[in-house]
Structure formats: C-alpha cells, structure tokens
What we know:
The complex is a heterodimer. Chain A is of the alpha/beta class.
Amino acid sequence: MTARPLLEVDGLTVEYGQGRAPSLRAVDGVSFDVRPGETVGLVGESGSGKSTIARAVLGLTPVHSGEIRFDGADITRANRGLRRTLSARLQMVFQDPYSSLNPARTIGQTLAEPLLVHHRLRPAQVDARVAAMLERVGLPAQAAERYPAQFSGGQRQRVAIARALMTSAELVVCDEPVSALDLSIQAQTLNLLSELQRELSLSYLFIAHDLPVVRYLSHRVVVLYHGAVMETGPVELVYERPAHPYTRALLAAVPDPDPRVRSGRHDAPVAAAQAAPRSSAVGCPFAPRCAHAVELCRTERPPLLPLRGDGVAGGAAVACHRAEELISTGNDVASGTVAAGLPKDIQMEET
Amino acid sequence: MTTTKTRPALARRLLRRPSAVIAVAWLVTLTAASLGAPLIAAHGPLDQDLTQVLALPSAAHPLGTDSLGRDLLSRLLYGGQPALLAVAEALAVHLVVGAGLGLVAGYLGGWVDHLTTRIGDLLFALPAIVIVLVVLSVFPGNLHAAMVTFGVLGSPSMIRVLRSRTLGIRQEMYVAAARVSGLSDAQILRRHVLPRLTSTVIVQAALFSGVAVIIQAGLGFLGLGAQPPAPSWGGLVADASQVIDRDPWMLVPAGVPLVLTVIALMALGDAIRDTAVENWSVSKLAASGPVAPPPVAEEMAEETAGTSRAPDPDALLSVRDLTVEIGGVPVVQGVSFDVMPGETLGVVGESGCGKSVTALGVLGLVPGGGRVVRGRVVFDGVDLVGSPEGLARVRGSGIAYVSQDPMVGLDPTFTVMAQLAEAVRRHLGTTREQARERVLELLAMVGVPDPPSVARRHPHQLSGGLAQRVLIALALAGRPRLLIADEPTTALDVSVQKEILTLLHTLQRRTGIAVLIVTHDWGVVATLCHRSLVMYAGQVVEQADVEPMFVRPLHPYTAGLLAANPHQAVSGHPLVTIPGAVPPPRDWPVGCRFAARCPHAADDCRAAPVALVQPEQARLTRCLHFEELVDEGVRR
C-alpha cells in the first residue's frame, strides 16, 4: 500500500500536569500512520498511553509537541471550527458503552446529533437516516424511541458504532470497543466492525489491550510501553516473530486457550514484576523490566529502527539496542524469562 | 417499558400522579381565584361592615371578617395576586441567575468558574433579609424590587449545586462523544448537560419558591410590602396576630393558604422531577415489568445420572440443587457440583448467567438482597445453607474469597499490615507479634517483593497486581481449604494476569488448596483448571474435565463460546458468533434456555425443560442433540 496516509502522527508528546507538580509524560515521541482502508492496532498495558493518543487525535487532550496530520492537513491544534468540519470524517467509538451514551437522551436523539452539525436535513430525512443506520448495525428501527438503559452492553456498543458512522466517516478511532463485552457479543461486534470496514472502506485506529483481538482486526500494529513505541510492523510479522523483549513478554503472557499447552502452568518464580519506576529521560523505558538489558539500555534510548533482517519497506521497526542479536536467539528462549523476571538492581519505589 | 411511538407529553404523565394532581389543583385554583377575585368575592377587600367585626364564617362571609369587619375571603384573594407575582418574580430571577451562572461556571471552568464561585461566596456571606430590607427602604413598598433582589441573593445555592453537577457531567464520555460529533458548546449544554440537570434544578426551584412564599409573607407581616389598608397575605397574618386572644379563628384563613401553597410547591417539584426522569432512570426500569417470577421450569427430579442427589462424602465442597432468588426472581436454578480437595474447578459463562451468584451463594453472600431458596451446600461434611453458625465458622478459615477488583477488596483506610494482621488474629488467635510474623510470611508466600515495606503501605499505594497479591494473602490468612476466586485476573494487565495465574497454580501445588474460579476467559480455564462447568441462564449446561471439553464440547453453548474466542480467529474470516444475547432471568423460556441462539435447536428443545444427561464418564450436558455436535466435531 503506497496510498497517502489518512492519519499521520509524528513525534507526538502529551504531558499531563497538575498545577506546580512535575508533569507526567503520558505519550513520548510517538510516530505512526494509518492509510486509507487500513486498521492500525495500538496495543500496550494500562499506562502505555494508548487512550491518550486517541484523545489527542480527536482533539480532546492538548498536545505538548509533535504533529498530527489528517489527510495531509495539520490538525494538531485545530480550533473548534476546523474540528467541527473534521468531525464528519474523523470519528470515535468509546470504550465504555454505558457512559458514552447520555442516559437522558433517546437513541434517536443521540444518533441524529452528528447530522445536526453537518447536514441541513428535514426531520423526516433524519429519522430515515437513523432508522437505516440502526438496521445496518443490527438493531430494530424502533430502537430510536428508546433510552440507553433499555439496551444491553453489546447493543449500546452497536449504537455507538452507528453514531460514528452517521456522517461519512473515513477514520474511526476505536478505544477498547469490545473490552467491556462478553465473549459472544465481542465476536459479533468485531465482525460488525470488519464488515463495515469492507463496505465503507473505513480506516480504523484500533486500541486494545487484548492482543488476540488486535491481531484479528489489524493490518499493522504499534506496541506501546510507557508512552513510547517499542515495536511496529505488519501484524503477522510482529505476532509471529516479535523482536522486542516487551512484545515477546506481552505475547507470552496471553493465556493460551488450549489445555494441552498450559502455558502458565510452570512453577515459575512467584515474585511480582515491579511496576518499574517511571522511565527515566535517558535509556530504554522497558530496561528496568527487561531480562536482556545491558548498561547501554539504561544510558541511551534506543531509536525505532527497521529490522535489518527484513529491511524491506513495510517491515517491522523495533526500538531495542539488542534486537538484532536477540532475534537470532529465537523467540522461545526469550519469552519465558521476561514477564516474571525481577531485576535485582531495582529498588522498591516508596511512594 | 414503553415502546410506543408517541410518548405522552410530560404534562399528561405528570397528572397520573395523585400528589401532582392535588398540588396542581390547589395552585391553579389559587391562581385563578386570585386573578378572578373581583368576580368571586362578594365584597371588596376594603369594604367595612362594622356590624360584623371578627365574625366567624357565615353565609355572607365564608371565611369570616377581620377587626374592621372586612371580608377575609376577599382580602385573601385580592392579596393573592401580588403574592403569587412576587414569588414568580423571585423564582424567575433565581433560575436565570442561578442556573445560568452555575452551568457556565461548571462547563467552562477556568477563570469564569473562579470568578463566579467567588461572587457566589460573596453573596452567600451577605445577610439576604437585611439587604432586602435596605432595598425596601430605598424603594418603599416596592415588593418587585425586593423579590428580584431576593432572587439574586438566593442564587448562590443554585450556582453551587449546578456547578458541581456540571463539572461531573463535563467529564462524562458522552460529552466527549458529542464533541467528537462536532457539536458546539451551546448544543452540548442544551442537549447533554441540561437534561441531566433537570431534576436538580426542579428540586432547587421548588425549595426556593417555598422560601419565597414565606419571605414575601414575612415582608407583608412587617408592613413592608403592600401598604395598609391594601390586602396582603403577610398583612392578614399580622392582623390575625393582633387579635389572636379575641379571635383565634382568623389565623386559619390567614395562615393555612400559605402553608398549603408551600406544601403544594414542594409536592409539585418532586412530582415533576420524578416524571421528567422516569423515562430513562435505570431504577425505574428495573422496578417496572412483571413483579411475579417468570414461569419456572420444573427442575428434573429424576436427575438421571452423574451428580447424584446426595452430596458426595469425598468432596471438599458438594453443592446440590442450589437455587438463588434475587427480588423474588430465580437467577440460579438447580446447580449441583463437587469440588474435590486440591482440585481447581472453573465456572465459565457470560455475564448474567449466574456464575458469580453461584460462587457467592456458596458463601451465603448473595448480593442485591438475594437469598438461597433451595439446595444444599455441604463443606467438609457441614451443610451451610440455613446455618449461620456453620457459615461463620467456615468463612475465611474454611472457604476464602478473592474478588475481581483488588482495590474494592481492600479497605483504603488501613495499611496492608493492619488488614492482614486482623485476619490472622481473627482466624488463628495469635498474639500481635506472631500475627506480624505470619503476615510477612503470607506476603512472601504470594510473591510480594520486600514484604515489610509493602506491609506498611495503604492500598492506594499498590499497583493492581500487587493489590491482588495482597488480597490473595488476605484470603490465605485463615489457612482455608477452598479458595473462591471471582474473575481474579479480569481487571489486570495481561502480564500481571499471567503472574497471578502462575501464583495461584504455585500456591495450589504447595498448599493443596482447592480453587473454585469464576471466569469468562477460556485462557484462564485452560491454564489453571482441572474441570470446568459452563453456566447459561442460571443453569449448568455442561460439565467436564477441561481437555475433553475444549477438544469435544458436548453443548452448543460451550462450542459457540469456544469458537467465538478471537484467539482462534483467522484474520479476514468472520469470527464464529452466537447470535443474540443471554436472556434476562425474567425472560427465561420453559424449554431449553439456549434454544433461541442454538443452531441445533428443534421443536423438542423448546417444548419442555431439558435435563442434564451423562453422555459418558465424568461428563454432563444439558442438550438433547449433543450427538449432532459430536458428528460435527468429527467432520471438522
């Protein structure tokens, strides 16, 4: 795919500050892009900055530095007017289907809102559009008359998806859209998202902590840790041949739903991996938890570089000083030791 | 649930409430009578009849007369007009200033908020009644000026309340969603913030108008409003108070309308509030619908095979026919299972299937006012159902419980040491010193690095994984033989989740504790469990050892859930789904509860309750057509 990226995020840094307290860097120099019709998955644990990136793209949180471009235009600090225009093409599905719908407004009223902004439609046309979209996401048209409290989590998430698609959205940011849903409902919702993507050639920026879900839906994936990109690349490549020790640890930690594997059933050390001190300005953010960290890792931040092994365009890029030598040691050796490894030189952070 | 196309208008729904009807009737009658005073009253408010001084009610004077022989009904009605107008003026100003500034301050925040709050504080500090008196001395007898001033001075309470409510609503995700949709601030305020504030505004307005009624009467009483001999409500009370020794009756027509008006305003406020939110409030929805329990399928008494009717004497925990009701509705029905010593049993299913209620039912801790209505829970030979002493003995020291959210499970006001030591001393009866040692031992056992330092912390100083370890240590304090863990890893990050699973496994190996784990995650079942039972709509639908269940599920629900796991998915191919959703307890059908979502369902499934059968050794399924699944599995 060589089409011009729809969304480009370049060196994005977001800081949260509270008064005079030292600011917290939630996102630290993150760059990636999303091309038309493509799904890019953002994965990482809580505190990795996934949701902050989403909020920054939507203009819901101020950007400290870096640039966000949508279809070539800089929207990093877009004003309300530009955001209003933009909202027809850039939409979001929120994580929690219970709080993302106003309980005091009917489904129809909620769905009609994006139309108020962008189209001057007669009420009958709005109703028809709402009914058509409800049907498209698998809800009866009569749902428009009802209030969110009358729907289950899965149904509400369908409503939230419908709201994102009321105008002709091109990029939909999905922030953990299925993590609050049950397994069977989750599968229905994921299928709906991928059907809609095919029909409407949507792009998704798909944020989730559930790695199998991201793998199922994404074309490319960005692995985040403490606000920084650890590894990025085509989803199959990253999942099959993870190069960064953090990616390996994450993948190894997913419990395999096959009792014959019993991946977690070893009498491993029971020590907790400490929540590492907030990464220092220098060095790799993952170094405190990494079993392969050497002195260089703690003193110099590794840049995000393409892996030399498959240096073709569109390959994986990794931010690890030792990526090249680790990838040759094979994934199995590395994976087990990382997640639970407690580095000796890390002292407990007293709070 | 109203699904009708046209919802009746607010006014019509309001008038379905008796209290609202009475309140509206009083206020409308009063207003109409005041406006139509010249038509209704037989006498003018100033007409004196000195032959009828301080008379009791009579045909000529329905409410009697005052000390100058003036008709009280006439004076009351003529006085009502300025009184009602005064209240309306004060309320209007109060709403405009209070609601307007409150909304703006809460929504915009920043310096606007700062300024508004400070001005509000200043107004709060002013003695309202004194200022009103000053205004009246500048504009003598001008009740309008007085009431407008009072409306402004009374607004800080409204500003305060609305500001804090708006601050909360501004953080709601639906406001973020509206912003993403491109709505302007004004649109967001009108469409998203105001509807949520309706009830608050109405209650505040009702309270304020009640006070305004009293204040304007008070001003009249002091002779600061309408000047005598012009009639006013407050003036009537003043007149009555002067003749109270000679004619106590006069206080009734003077005071009762005041009291009734205040009560009517309050009642109307409450009724409007309830009516305005009844459409969408959750509690209202939950309370509506059928109150009687749905038709409950007669549970199969014969219980063909497998789990026999009698509790298993070898089992550590033997549950038989456990039935739990919440609010008169059965949510778990006829659940039977055994947990052997040292075994891990997984309880799997979606939300609303009764997994957690089953786990809590074992401990006699059903949430939401629910209770175990039938069945036996035999732990170590003692039946816990209906035996509070047995439960008290077993909780903590026989059976321990680990909840889903570690932060909720720990008391935020005590240190880890205090909480653990309390549990240790309660169960083991040791001295303080011994308890401290045991706590550190326990923390080390659950893999907490540097136990003495962690023991000194409060729960908010712990990460999620650490908090869950502490909670597990707390559960182990009484050396229990069974650990019930309700989604112990759901709230945790994936790498922490793995640590906790490994910890549970290791603990089990070392201590021989049995574990009953409730989960929706097949990965957890595969990793940890020996056997598993699958629950659907309050019933066990399948029970088997873990490996055979994964390889060859014998219930379509199990098969569907396994297939829906994105773990097995291939990109580009749709995920296998189960259509529909779990029915709520009120909608459980008579026949197989999964039939509506089942690809194998036939008429016989829907006809009658389906019994658990034992198709092979150590397996149970609640399916009439499990052979089809087996054939299908072979073909795959």
